[in-house]
Design brief:
transmembrane transporter activity, MFS, membrane, Growth Hormone, Chain: A, transmembrane helix, 0% strand, 404 residues, mainly alpha
């Protein structure tokens, strides 16, 4: 009991600041679709075409479009404020996602799926970056910021535990469109409610004439490559796991398998955020990456659905520590007036990676089967470790430099 309280205790004080509960709750519901959109598109398109390659390609189109647009929308937010940018974007996103579903329903030419996918991704809001930007504004310089980022990572994993299972259940047991419809409603309602929480919105800071894009900061560029590779793991595992379950006549269980993957990350996120760390952020980042690659190894050799659930849970244990450390490093590496755009670069890198992973996972699954396709996910994890370890010196933050 005492051990459980020691894990939960550090999170209690986060919600004493006025306005925090409002933006946290709205941000949570607005982010639910981020775990439902990709798998919802895959399930709908695969049902329509019978091809995982096509399904992966359409999902990849959405991810690439989001990845390209996220830094641009982040820069607009830094310049004009959150509410003025995300409300029109969200309404446009709802309209374009509706358009994609109509294209499917009306049997429109296949190219319209890709065209609407571009629009869906371009108008998607990187709400996780905006939530973390609010925490950075409210807790700047406070050790509680580490706990806040840990809480948000846990919230993300709660979403990724429930989202894929919900989307899969709705698409396979109710209607192929049901998962995307629920995602659309959550996106619009949650994001607009988040925008209305004006009291905690970060102020627009004057831009320096010499300031460029955060991607030109070596540490941010390095992490972008690392998270590109990690995104490829996420995107490929999502698609391959659906095919893995279907090949064993258990397609409705695919969402539960993906929930196990996210569940491991949820547990480690709670533990990570409750600890007071003495080793540096960059050391934590590299060690978490190494553990992530090692944890993925067992899935290469498993053929049973129940055993795979346990293996995916163990593989997910290193996700939250890596993501938390990555966002914390970004917060320290990027100037305050570029913070939203800097965090958006992490999201955009993951988006590109997810697109690559979904495309490659679909191709490899159709060609070699799901069990063999997991090898691509493992190679991407090894790439993330290699890049992170080789360039860890670029991750020295101003805080660390002052302490040395």
């Amino acid at each position: 009991m005492r051990r459980g309280l020691s894990v939960v205790g550090p999170y209690r004080g986060l919600f004493s600041t006025p306005g925090v509960k409002g933006f946290v709750i709205a941000g949570f519901f607005g982010r639910v679709p981020m775990s439902m959109l990709g798998i919802g598109v895959i399930l709908l398109i695969q049902e329509l075409t019978g091809s995982y390659a096509t399904a992966g390609a359409v999902a990849a189109t959405v991810s690439v479009s989001f990845a390209v647009a996220a830094p641009l929308s982040g820069r607009l937010v830094d310049r004009f404020g959150q509410a003025r940018v995300i409300v029109p974007l969200t309404l446009a996103h709802g309209a374009t996602l509706t358009g994609m579903m109509l294209c499917v329903e009306l049997g429109a030419p296949r190219w319209t799926l890709f065209a609407s996918g571009v629009a869906v991704g371009a108008t998607a809001v990187s709400l996780g970056s905006l939530v973390r930007a609010r925490w950075s504004h409210l807790l700047a310089g406070s050790p509680r910021l580490h706990t806040a980022f840990s809480f948000e990572s846990v919230a993300d994993e709660v979403i990724f535990v429930g989202g894929p299972a919900l989307a899969t259940a709705l698409a396979t047991m109710v209607n192929p469109y049901a998962g995307l419809i629920v995602a659309l409603v959550c996106t619009v309602v949650g994001t607009v409610a988040f925008a209305l929480q004006r009291g905690t919105e970060p102020p627009v800071r004057p831009r320096e004439h010499s300031s460029g894009s955060p991607i030109t900061i070596p540490g941010v560029a390095l992490m972008s490559v690392v998270f590109l590779a990690m995104g490829a793991v996420f995107g490929s595992v999502d698609l391959i796991t659906v095919a893995f379950a279907e090949a064993r006549d258990a397609k409705p269980v695919a969402g539960l398998l993906l929930a196990a993957f996210a569940g491991g990350s949820l547990v480690s996120g709670l533990w990570y955020g409750a600890r007071e760390w003495k080793i540096s952020l960059r050391a934590r980042f590299v060690r978490a990456l190494l553990t992530f690659a090692v944890g993925l190894t067992p899935i290469l050799f498993i053929d049973d659905v129940r055993v795979m659930a346990g293996a995916l849970f163990l593989a997910g244990l290193s996700i939250s520590p890596t993501v938390i450390a990555g966002y914390s490093l970004t917060e320290q590496l990027v100037p305050a007036h570029l913070l939203t755009e800097g965090m958006a670069w992490i999201s955009t890198s993951v988006g590109f990676g997810v697109a690559l992973g979904a495309w490659a996972g679909g191709r490899l699954t159709d060609a070699f089967g799901a069990g063999n396709a997991y090898g691509f996910s493992f190679v991407c994890a090894l790439l993330a470790v290699s890049v992170g370890a080789a360039g860890h010196a670029w991750l020295r933050t101003p805080v660390a430099q002052q302490q040395s």
